[in-house]
Design goal:
Blueprint (H helix, E strand, L loop, with lengths): L2 H38 L22 H7 L7 H10 L4 E6 L2 E6 L2 H9 L4 E3 L3 H7 L9 H11 L5 H24 L6 H18 L4 H18 L10 H27 L10 H7 L10 H32 L1 H16 L10 H5 L2 H13 L8 E3 L8
Antiparallel strand pairs: 1-2, 3-4
Helix pairs in contact: 7-8, 8-12, 9-10, 12-15, 13-15
Length: about 400
């Protein structure tokens, strides 16, 4: 091969490489514009009032980078990327959970969006509603939300409800601590989540069999993973597994509902005093009872909310107390004083003692202040809204 042909070959490779590189850049530009064409273009002049941002890839949007950030040690990196590219505007357009979205980050703007019920309403993604339930708090109207909270809050909220379960909670926590103390190493959050799951399920279903509880825990774990996954309903993906898990959970809870309804017809059968019984018997001011679907969706929603927040609160409170031994000593001294005042005949905790745990309550409140469990809250604008961040 002579020198001229060598240069021709090199030049040809360079041209092909340039063409491929140029084609890739054009393809990337087109792909980045698909969501604009589908969603922003139709807004006409209003599109120029949108905040800066990035609509991401077609249909997927920004979900890959969003979910990837939460698998790292720096979950704030997702929002940080918007700040670095578009400045500290406090609001950014994006494509999240299958919908064009506005990300709001400043305290003042968040307060406006969360509290202005005339302009905004709950706007949870359809994929989340499929998993948690259309009859749960996130999938119903504001009026139905108030009604459902009024009918369902009593069995789980307040000191009166706590007094019913305090002895069971004390026994199962003591048993768990004894078990953990004999192990060389434990995954603390995993064990706390298992503990809180059994406590919550006892509040819901009291003495249902271990077989039922194990089945519920297994399926709930799959459901919980799907809530935080991309909504791809194909075999092998977490969301697909979560939908199957929800189906199994609903079937298991429906069998419990049917069994309880049949037992309620038998006057000789002892009545239970758990949340399931309360939901089956409660009536509103018009005498209307809850439907089976409402009962099951409310149970799944309370399970998802209470299980996650309780386990993480205990974990972080433990970590903070370990990092600040002076506060640990104050909390410990309060507990020792409460035990010291007990009469000799008393066995176990009482509601009165729990009310005396003033310092420990402040520890929990401070933990909740510092740690955020729900990093995103979804709201939908009822009409066009102008906000200055």
């Amino acid at each position: 091969m002579n020198s001229d042909s060598s240069w021709s070959w090199i030049w040809g490779v360079g041209v092909v490489g340039s063409m491929i590189g140029g084609s890739m850049m054009i393809l990337k530009w087109v792909m980045k514009r698909v969501n604009w064409w589908l969603y922003e273009r139709k807004l006409g002049e209003k599109q120029y009032s949108l905040p800066p941002g990035d609509m991401g890839w077609p249909f997927i949007g920004n979900m890959w980078s969003f979910l990837r950030a939460f698998k790292t040690t720096h979950p704030d990196s997702f929002v940080d990327s918007f700040v670095s590219r578009f400045g500290r505007t406090g609001m950014y357009k994006a494509f999240m959970f299958g919908n064009p979205s506005i990300i709001v980050t400043t305290p003042e703007t968040c307060k406006r969006v969360l509290t202005d019920d005339d302009a905004f309403k709950p706007g949870w993604p359809a994929s989340t509603m499929e998993l948690i339930g259309k009859k749960s708090f996130i999938g119903i109207s504001y009026e139905e939300h108030k009604r459902l909270r009024r009918l369902t809050a009593a069995p789980v909220n307040g000191h009166e409800a706590l007094s019913v379960y305090v002895h069971y909670i004390e026994d199962i926590v003591t048993s768990a601590l004894d078990k953990w103390s004999n192990l060389e190493r434990i995954e603390f959050l995993t064990q706390l989540r298992r503990l809180t799951f059994r406590i919550i399920m006892y509040i819901f279903l009291s003495s249902e069999s271990d077989h039922v509880l194990e089945a519920l825990e297994r399926e709930y774990t799959k459901l919980n993973c799907g809530v935080r996954a991309m909504a791809i309903n194909l075999p092998g993906f977490a969301y697909h597994k979560a939908l199957k898990a929800r189906k199994n959970l609903v079937a298991t809870l429906q069998s419990v509902v049917d069994d309880r309804r049949n037992r309620s017809k038998d006057d000789n059968f002892p009545k239970k005093k758990d949340m399931m019984d309360a939901l089956l018997s409660v009536e509103d001011e018009n005498g209307r009872k809850l439907e089976d679907e409402e009962i099951i969706d409310v149970l799944l929603m309370y399970l998802n909310a209470g299980h996650e927040s309780s386990g993480h609160t205990m974990m972080w409170a433990t970590i903070f107390l370990q990092e600040h031994p002076e506060f640990l000593q104050k909390a410990k001294a309060e507990q020792e004083m409460i035990v010291k005042k007990r009469p000799p005949t008393q066995k176990g905790l009482t509601l009165k003692e729990i009310r005396e745990m003033d310092y420990l309550s402040k520890v929990v409140d401070e933990t909740l202040r510092i740690i955020t469990f729900s990093l995103t809250v979804f709201r939908e604008a009822k009409t066009d809204v102008n906000i200055s961040a």
